Amino acid sequence: MLKEAEEVEAARGESKEEQKPARARPMIGDLVEFGQLTQISYMLVGPLGSGKTTYAEAFLAEGIAQGFPAVFVTTDVSPRVIRNDMSRHGWSIEENEASGQFVFIDGYSERMGAPKSGTARSLMKVDDISELGIVLSEVLDQLVVARVVIDSLSTLILHSNEAAMPRAVQRLSGRVTQSSHSIMYILEEGVHEEKTYATFSYLADAVVRFRIDDSGPEPVHQIRMERMRGTDTSRVWHDFVIER
Questions:
Q1: Is the residue at 17 inside a domain?
Q2: pLDDT tens across 89-118, in order?
Q3: By Cβ atoms counted within 10 A, which residue in 100, 169, 175, 231 is the most buried?
Protein backbone atom coordinates (compact mmCIF):
# COMPACT_ATOMS: atom_id res chain seq x y z
CA MET A 1 0.00 0.00 0.00
CA LEU A 2 2.83 2.35 0.87
CA LYS A 3 4.46 1.74 -2.49
CA GLU A 4 1.15 2.36 -4.28
CA ALA A 5 0.67 5.59 -2.34
CA GLU A 6 4.19 6.70 -3.25
CA GLU A 7 3.52 5.94 -6.92
CA VAL A 8 0.27 7.93 -6.84
CA GLU A 9 2.03 10.85 -5.18
CA ALA A 10 4.84 10.68 -7.73
CA ALA A 11 2.30 10.69 -10.56
CA ARG A 12 0.66 13.72 -9.03
CA GLY A 13 4.04 15.40 -8.85
CA GLU A 14 4.68 14.65 -12.52
CA SER A 15 1.24 16.00 -13.41
CA LYS A 16 1.96 19.22 -11.54
CA GLU A 17 5.29 19.48 -13.28
CA GLU A 18 3.57 19.07 -16.65
CA GLN A 19 1.25 21.96 -15.80
CA LYS A 20 4.08 24.30 -14.85
CA PRO A 21 3.66 27.48 -16.93
CA ALA A 22 6.09 27.86 -19.79
CA ARG A 23 8.28 30.95 -20.01
CA ALA A 24 8.58 32.77 -23.31
CA ARG A 25 11.64 34.85 -24.02
CA PRO A 26 12.60 37.44 -24.85
CA MET A 27 9.57 39.45 -23.74
CA ILE A 28 9.19 43.22 -24.15
CA GLY A 29 11.03 43.99 -20.93
CA ASP A 30 14.00 41.91 -22.12
CA LEU A 31 14.29 43.88 -25.37
CA VAL A 32 14.57 47.41 -23.95
CA GLU A 33 17.05 49.00 -21.57
CA PHE A 34 14.54 51.42 -20.09
CA GLY A 35 11.23 53.03 -20.87
CA GLN A 36 7.58 52.82 -19.95
CA LEU A 37 6.03 49.40 -20.58
CA THR A 38 2.41 50.34 -19.79
CA GLN A 39 0.09 52.62 -21.76
CA ILE A 40 1.86 51.50 -24.94
CA SER A 41 0.56 50.46 -28.37
CA TYR A 42 2.55 47.58 -29.89
CA MET A 43 2.55 46.36 -33.49
CA LEU A 44 3.70 42.77 -34.09
CA VAL A 45 4.70 42.26 -37.73
CA GLY A 46 5.83 39.03 -39.36
CA PRO A 47 4.89 36.21 -41.74
CA LEU A 48 2.28 33.58 -41.01
CA GLY A 49 3.58 30.98 -38.55
CA SER A 50 6.40 33.15 -37.20
CA GLY A 51 5.09 33.09 -33.61
CA LYS A 52 3.14 36.34 -33.33
CA THR A 53 0.02 34.84 -31.77
CA THR A 54 2.04 32.74 -29.33
CA TYR A 55 3.98 35.87 -28.37
CA ALA A 56 0.73 37.77 -27.80
CA GLU A 57 -0.57 34.91 -25.63
CA ALA A 58 2.67 35.01 -23.64
CA PHE A 59 2.30 38.78 -23.28
CA LEU A 60 -1.14 38.32 -21.70
CA ALA A 61 -0.02 35.37 -19.55
CA GLU A 62 2.93 37.40 -18.26
CA GLY A 63 0.56 40.25 -17.44
CA ILE A 64 -1.89 37.99 -15.60
CA ALA A 65 0.99 36.64 -13.50
CA GLN A 66 1.93 40.22 -12.61
CA GLY A 67 -1.64 41.23 -11.77
CA PHE A 68 -2.64 42.89 -15.06
CA PRO A 69 -6.01 41.80 -16.49
CA ALA A 70 -6.24 40.72 -20.12
CA VAL A 71 -8.51 41.20 -23.12
CA PHE A 72 -8.10 39.06 -26.26
CA VAL A 73 -9.90 40.22 -29.40
CA THR A 74 -9.90 37.25 -31.77
CA THR A 75 -11.01 37.54 -35.40
CA ASP A 76 -9.36 34.53 -37.04
CA VAL A 77 -10.16 31.62 -34.67
CA SER A 78 -12.63 30.94 -31.88
CA PRO A 79 -11.75 31.72 -28.25
CA ARG A 80 -11.68 27.96 -27.65
CA VAL A 81 -8.64 27.63 -29.94
CA ILE A 82 -6.77 30.38 -28.08
CA ARG A 83 -7.80 28.93 -24.73
CA ASN A 84 -6.51 25.48 -25.69
CA ASP A 85 -3.29 26.89 -27.13
CA MET A 86 -2.55 28.83 -23.95
CA SER A 87 -3.36 25.79 -21.81
CA ARG A 88 -0.88 23.75 -23.85
CA HIS A 89 1.85 26.09 -22.63
CA GLY A 90 0.62 25.91 -19.05
CA TRP A 91 -1.05 29.33 -19.24
CA SER A 92 -4.43 28.24 -17.90
CA ILE A 93 -6.93 31.12 -17.93
CA GLU A 94 -10.22 29.50 -16.85
CA GLU A 95 -10.11 30.97 -13.33
CA ASN A 96 -9.21 34.39 -14.71
CA GLU A 97 -12.13 34.21 -17.14
CA ALA A 98 -14.48 33.25 -14.31
CA SER A 99 -13.31 36.22 -12.23
CA GLY A 100 -13.56 38.63 -15.17
CA GLN A 101 -9.81 39.24 -15.32
CA PHE A 102 -9.44 37.62 -18.75
CA VAL A 103 -12.05 38.58 -21.33
CA PHE A 104 -12.46 37.36 -24.89
CA ILE A 105 -14.07 39.57 -27.52
CA ASP A 106 -15.10 37.11 -30.21
CA GLY A 107 -15.12 38.49 -33.74
CA TYR A 108 -14.98 35.02 -35.30
CA SER A 109 -17.83 32.78 -34.16
CA GLU A 110 -20.79 35.00 -35.11
CA ARG A 111 -19.27 35.74 -38.52
CA MET A 112 -18.43 32.11 -39.29
CA GLY A 113 -21.57 30.54 -37.80
CA ALA A 114 -19.53 28.70 -35.18
CA PRO A 115 -20.80 27.94 -31.65
CA LYS A 116 -20.28 30.78 -29.20
CA SER A 117 -17.70 30.20 -26.50
CA GLY A 118 -18.45 30.61 -22.80
CA THR A 119 -18.42 34.13 -21.41
CA ALA A 120 -16.88 35.74 -24.50
CA ARG A 121 -18.33 39.03 -25.70
CA SER A 122 -19.48 38.81 -29.32
CA LEU A 123 -18.80 41.09 -32.26
CA MET A 124 -21.55 40.93 -34.87
CA LYS A 125 -19.17 42.00 -37.64
CA VAL A 126 -15.56 43.05 -38.18
CA ASP A 127 -16.10 45.48 -41.06
CA ASP A 128 -16.89 48.33 -38.67
CA ILE A 129 -14.16 48.99 -36.13
CA SER A 130 -16.48 51.36 -34.26
CA GLU A 131 -18.41 48.35 -32.90
CA LEU A 132 -15.15 46.91 -31.60
CA GLY A 133 -14.36 50.25 -29.99
CA ILE A 134 -17.70 50.29 -28.16
CA VAL A 135 -17.45 46.71 -26.90
CA LEU A 136 -13.80 47.13 -25.92
CA SER A 137 -14.57 50.32 -24.00
CA GLU A 138 -17.35 48.56 -22.09
CA VAL A 139 -14.97 45.75 -21.13
CA LEU A 140 -12.08 48.04 -20.17
CA ASP A 141 -14.34 50.18 -17.98
CA GLN A 142 -14.39 47.21 -15.59
CA LEU A 143 -10.60 46.62 -15.63
CA VAL A 144 -7.52 48.43 -14.33
CA VAL A 145 -4.25 48.63 -16.31
CA ALA A 146 -5.22 45.85 -18.70
CA ARG A 147 -3.30 44.34 -21.60
CA VAL A 148 -5.26 44.07 -24.86
CA VAL A 149 -4.42 41.91 -27.88
CA ILE A 150 -6.10 42.25 -31.29
CA ASP A 151 -5.45 39.19 -33.45
CA SER A 152 -5.53 40.25 -36.10
CA LEU A 153 -5.43 43.80 -37.36
CA SER A 154 -4.94 42.37 -40.84
CA THR A 155 -8.41 40.82 -40.78
CA LEU A 156 -9.96 44.12 -39.67
CA ILE A 157 -8.17 45.95 -42.50
CA LEU A 158 -9.27 43.42 -45.13
CA HIS A 159 -12.93 43.67 -44.07
CA SER A 160 -13.04 47.45 -43.64
CA ASN A 161 -12.53 50.64 -45.59
CA GLU A 162 -8.73 50.53 -45.77
CA ALA A 163 -8.42 54.28 -46.28
CA ALA A 164 -10.32 54.98 -43.05
CA MET A 165 -8.55 52.36 -40.94
CA PRO A 166 -5.40 54.30 -39.92
CA ARG A 167 -7.49 57.06 -38.35
CA ALA A 168 -9.79 54.53 -36.67
CA VAL A 169 -6.87 52.55 -35.24
CA GLN A 170 -5.21 55.74 -34.04
CA ARG A 171 -8.39 56.72 -32.18
CA LEU A 172 -8.79 53.24 -30.71
CA SER A 173 -5.17 53.11 -29.51
CA GLY A 174 -5.49 56.59 -28.04
CA ARG A 175 -8.60 55.71 -26.03
CA VAL A 176 -7.01 52.52 -24.72
CA THR A 177 -3.64 53.97 -23.72
CA GLN A 178 -5.09 57.17 -22.25
CA SER A 179 -7.08 54.94 -19.89
CA SER A 180 -3.79 53.41 -18.62
CA HIS A 181 -4.09 50.20 -20.66
CA SER A 182 -1.75 48.74 -23.31
CA ILE A 183 -2.74 47.33 -26.69
CA MET A 184 -0.96 44.89 -29.01
CA TYR A 185 -1.94 44.47 -32.67
CA ILE A 186 -0.95 41.58 -34.94
CA LEU A 187 -0.22 42.45 -38.57
CA GLU A 188 0.40 39.66 -41.09
CA GLU A 189 3.35 40.17 -43.41
CA GLY A 190 2.75 39.46 -47.09
CA VAL A 191 -0.94 40.34 -46.99
CA HIS A 192 -0.91 44.10 -47.50
CA GLU A 193 0.95 46.68 -49.56
CA GLU A 194 4.18 48.08 -48.12
CA LYS A 195 2.50 51.44 -47.56
CA THR A 196 0.06 49.75 -45.18
CA TYR A 197 2.85 48.32 -43.02
CA ALA A 198 4.63 51.67 -42.95
CA THR A 199 1.46 53.52 -41.96
CA PHE A 200 0.36 51.24 -39.13
CA SER A 201 3.91 50.81 -37.82
CA TYR A 202 4.21 54.59 -37.67
CA LEU A 203 1.00 54.81 -35.61
CA ALA A 204 2.28 52.37 -32.96
CA ASP A 205 4.52 53.28 -30.03
CA ALA A 206 6.57 50.12 -30.54
CA VAL A 207 7.14 47.76 -33.47
CA VAL A 208 8.21 44.17 -32.87
CA ARG A 209 9.34 42.23 -35.94
CA PHE A 210 9.23 38.42 -36.35
CA ARG A 211 10.90 36.12 -38.85
CA ILE A 212 11.76 32.46 -39.43
CA ASP A 213 15.46 31.80 -40.02
CA ASP A 214 15.70 28.61 -42.08
CA SER A 215 19.41 28.89 -42.91
CA GLY A 216 20.29 26.08 -40.48
CA PRO A 217 19.24 22.44 -40.23
CA GLU A 218 16.12 23.45 -38.26
CA PRO A 219 14.00 26.60 -38.70
CA VAL A 220 14.43 29.11 -35.88
CA HIS A 221 11.79 31.65 -34.88
CA GLN A 222 13.35 35.04 -34.20
CA ILE A 223 12.24 38.41 -32.88
CA ARG A 224 13.60 41.92 -32.61
CA MET A 225 12.42 45.26 -31.29
CA GLU A 226 12.46 47.45 -34.39
CA ARG A 227 11.72 50.64 -32.52
CA MET A 228 10.06 51.92 -29.36
CA ARG A 229 9.29 55.50 -28.50
CA GLY A 230 11.19 56.84 -25.52
CA THR A 231 14.01 54.30 -25.56
CA ASP A 232 16.91 53.11 -27.69
CA THR A 233 16.67 49.71 -29.35
CA SER A 234 19.49 47.54 -30.69
CA ARG A 235 17.45 45.98 -33.55
CA VAL A 236 19.37 42.74 -32.91
CA TRP A 237 17.56 39.51 -33.78
CA HIS A 238 16.95 37.13 -30.85
CA ASP A 239 15.78 33.52 -30.92
CA PHE A 240 12.19 33.34 -29.70
CA VAL A 241 11.89 30.33 -27.41
CA ILE A 242 9.30 28.78 -25.09
CA GLU A 243 10.99 27.26 -22.03
CA ARG A 244 9.57 24.80 -19.53
A1: no
A2: 999 999 999 999 999 999 999 989 888 878
A3: 169
